Amino acid sequence: MNKNFLSLAFAGLVILNGMVFAGDFGSAGAENQSDYSLKEMLQYALEDEHMALAEYEALMEEFGLTRPYSNIAQSEKTHISWLEGLYKDYQISVPIINTADHIVLPETLREAAEIAVQAEINNIAMYEKFLKQDLPEDVAEVFTLLKNASQNHLRAFQRQVSSTAGTSQGRGRNRG
User: Fold this and answer.
1) Which of 48, 70, 140, 166 has its CA 20 to 30 A from that of 129?
2) Over the stretch 107-134, which tens digit does the pLDDT of each residue have?
3) Measured distance CA(86)–CA(80) in Å, rounded
4) Residues 117, 154: contact at Cβ < 8 Å?
């Protein structure tokens, strides 16, 4: 575990999907509660899906990556559209999610994959908590689909960790 990670953890910040953000955002925010309003669940889910998309797009740019990141980034766009559909169905304004200030890129592909594994684990845990709530059927269906997708993403990133074992491949063309 690197020193920056420990410093940030002690500062009360959370690293998920390779990005640093306060503990009230995405799955990190959902972790600190046990009972949620529909609006809160949709907010945390939308934040988490946007953060994942921003992360994967940044990693593809920084490291010149394609799979599995390109496929999963496309999935995140679909997930966002499902959540935005629920916002519309329940006549809740879709919030603007700003991820630009939260992205912190890892140094290596292995570190990126390890962070993605933990992010998917956190995402799955968030949806499992949400699914224990009293939910409308359509919301439960979308959250189940999102949880299942995260389980698939988790397996892909676990394979990525295995395939980068023993490598120290650092940043690509934007290396500083």
Assistant:
1) 70
2) 888 888 888 898 899 999 999 999 999 9
3) 10
4) yes
